[in-house]
Write a structure and sequence with these properties.
Elements lengths: L1 E5 L10 H5 L1 H15 L1 H11 L5 H5 L1 E5 L7 E6 L4 H8 L7 H8 L8 E4 L7 H11 L13 E4 L3 E6 L2 E9 L7 H26 L3
Antiparallel strand pairs: 1-3, 2-3, 4-7, 5-6, 6-7
Length: 208
Amino acid sequence: MSIYLKAKYLIGKDLSAMQSKQIPYATSRAINDTAYALRPDVQDYLSRTLNNPSAWFKRSFLVLSRSTKTNLSAQVGFQKTTAIAEVLASGGKRHQKAYERELIKIGALPVGYFAVPYLTSKLSPSIARSILKALSGQTVKKQKNTSKYFVLPKIGVFLRDGHQILPVLLFVSHAQYKKWTEIATEVQKAYEKYFNPFFQKYIQEASA
């Protein structure tokens, strides 16, 4: 699973003869620098759109092959084919998280359902632990009124905050990952941001 980066730029008519000869060199250097520069953009995108992706998974998005003067393209993608990478390719159903499996064990989450964080892309480990600790030893039908967190059957987990009741997790019957094509769009956006400045840098160096 990978994406290829190729040159996309406008060459001005005022390039010197020396600069024109250096176009393959400048293009290759710009493509390679762009491939490395866009990795943090993709990693940030994964953090924003996936539910608590591991640091290992985000780091596994790498530059797989570099550009040369005779092959003006670089390849970026995941280092190895993983289950989550395959799911991203099709936008398929994601597997349950550890906290979801624990919620099922204590009878809070219906079997086959997912617990999706409300108004955020991921649930922090500390909040997950707090929820599980508060709900452990209770049943959905016999919940403590003093408990910070409580469950509304088939609806979600809610937080008592003073006089307010705030949703924390919503129960849904399915959860989908963003399709790989959407990640490809993110890569394209980052590519367009980085490539031309790098190309201009190297083409100007050719005439220095």
